[in-house]
Amino acid sequence: MSSKSARRKSSPNAAGQAKKPTGRIRRKENQEFAADMKLRTLRPEELLHPAQLLARFTERAAELIAQLPQDVRPTPATVNAALRQGVLEAFRTRDEHIARLVETDLLASTPEQGAKAIRRAVRASLVDMGVRVVEEADEQELFVVVEGEGEGFELVRPAYVDQATDKLLLAGQLRRIPAPRTLPEHDGTSAVDVRGDDAK
Fold first, then answer.
1. I want to staple 148 with a disulfide (CB 3.0 to 4.6 A). Which of 33, 175, 192, 199 is the partner?
2. Are strands 167-170 and 143-148 parallel, antiparallel or unpaired?
3. The pTM is what?
4. Per residue in 36-57, pLDDT tens?
């Protein structure tokens, strides 16, 4: 057996390591993703417009109000005003959410932006929308312990809390680890003091 053959057999690829995707595979994946996005794109007739949604709610509300005793029925004007305000607020919230997603998608599609920049953009969007991201184990009621042993804790996954309602959106995860050893107490002479004496 020649030395070239021996080198080929002992190369990383010959040992069974996974190969990187080729240009052909990437093109195929991109085409499949584009086709999936096209299928998932809503048609104009599938979209809900505020006026259409308000008309549906108003019709349903009229049916429910008709079942109430006459002396406790709210006026149509009151019901319509409340429904209109609710629908407009819902669509305003939707617009804000979509705007954030558009910004994140644009950032992710920019070649020079790395994963760190994208993560920061997503985190900033969450914070701006009133989501508190808890990454400290002090608030243990927001976390579940998933594994490990010991008295200390290590963050596995942050917890997400809606600040408007104080609702836990997603519980965080902690891993138990041995508690860090406490440093022995000194005699009152700090490192700064020692350096100061030496400097004199």
1. 175
2. unpaired
3. 0.53
4. 877 777 666 666 778 888 888 8
User: What does 46-60 look like in DSSP terms, one character per residue?
Assistant: GSPPHHHHHHHHHHH
Q: What are the tokens at 17?
A: 């390591």
In angstroms, rounded to a whole number, what is the distance separating the alpha carbons of residues 186 and 70?
A: 82
- The verdict on residue 11 lying in a domain is no
Could you tell me if 57 and 118 lie in one domain?
yes
- Give the pLDDT mean for 174-197: 62
Which residues form the domain of 154? 130-181
pLDDT of residue 184: 59
> Do 67 and 120 have their domain in common?
yes
Q: How far is CA 8 from CA 2, 3, 14, 116, in A?
A: 10, 9, 7, 38
DSSP, collapsed to helix, strand or coil, labels residue 178 as coil
The rounded radius of gyration (Å) of the Cα atoms in the chain is 30
Beta strand pairing status for 159-162 and 167-170? antiparallel
**Torsion angle defined by CA atoms of residues 111, 115, 121 and 127, in that order, rounded to the nearest 10 degrees:** 170
